[in-house]
């Protein structure tokens, strides 16, 4: 509690004048409105509402001799003259100010409520976020409450930053992000084409033992090489085999994992398996073996953040791995992996190539018998040539979409058009699937997809949905 008297007015004249000048410059027009004390009931003379950093002038019908402030840390009072004073809000809170005359009699008791400048916060939010019509700002006790619906998480963060610039420690967030368009479905397409070309021409020769092996058939399966044809000559222990081979290969890999996650939440997806790895322990249990499992297959992890109705931030990791070789001495197979991990911003429905690879490997080898393989023309009988070329092209595309749940009702499933075969179909006709026209009414309770007959196991292939 602090008490001021009119005798101190002279000593604080300079301070009061400076405070008045600063207040008049800083405060808006509505803050300069004067407030007149009501002397009808000294116990309840009125209530004054102030914003932090703002002031008002108090007029009194009678001379004021003494002022008592309940909480000096909340408000500050400066006497301008015996009938006029200036009240300045210093911090959010409640207090009261008592006014006395020269006989120590109570003239008036003024309740003062100091809060944050809600009007200024509203004005700034309207300037920066004119599209947020449902955003509401209220003052409650010593807090600023933000409520209503906002369009995105980015809009919520912006509103909080603006409000906290006025009330650093007094903002309560009751805002809700509009549920429309806050669920993101990520479509990932991992497409890979691999082309292989191999050409081989060579001669194998033995004479009472191995005197030279001049082709690279070790790189091929013997049965495959013989299937393409060899020409052999045997004469008195001399065994010559001419092998000519040309192969071409084409492989296609296409993985399309799709996953839905809520804005700001991580979603993960894995179709594949796990294989065990023996791991030796150290420390107190040195020599002990534990088993760890390594995942492989088609995997996807991503965290979407909806910035606004047209922009989505994505943190994602996509991977396609497969077992490329048998287990090694370490009891772990070799994995062939294609992986991409990145963060991008993409608009709703737009596609983005986040990774790409073009690899071209060429391997050309010549094996020959020293000396004899260098002889012109006849040297071709003592050497072999192996040419191999591998080309790989890989692209990873992503397409995020803002989605909503489907309406209540039947939905199409991949199993809708499958009909178990009857005994006649399976044993007499050799079919693995019955005809859709023979399906009972309860075969596809979810509602089968319309369109042409999928053709069974040996017919057309493709996505069911």
From TrEMBL:
Cellular component terms per the entry's GO annotation: type II protein secretion system complex
Keyword Signal: yes
Keywords, ordered alphabetically: Signal
UniProt cross-references to InterPro entries, sorted A to Z: Bact_Secretion_Sys_Channel (IPR050810), BON_dom (IPR007055), GspD/PilQ (IPR001775), T2SS-T3SS_pil_N (IPR032789), T2SS/T3SS_dom (IPR004846)
Span of the signal peptide: 1-31
Record bears the keyword Ion transport: no
Protein name: Pilus assembly protein CpaC
Species of the source: Mariprofundus ferrinatatus
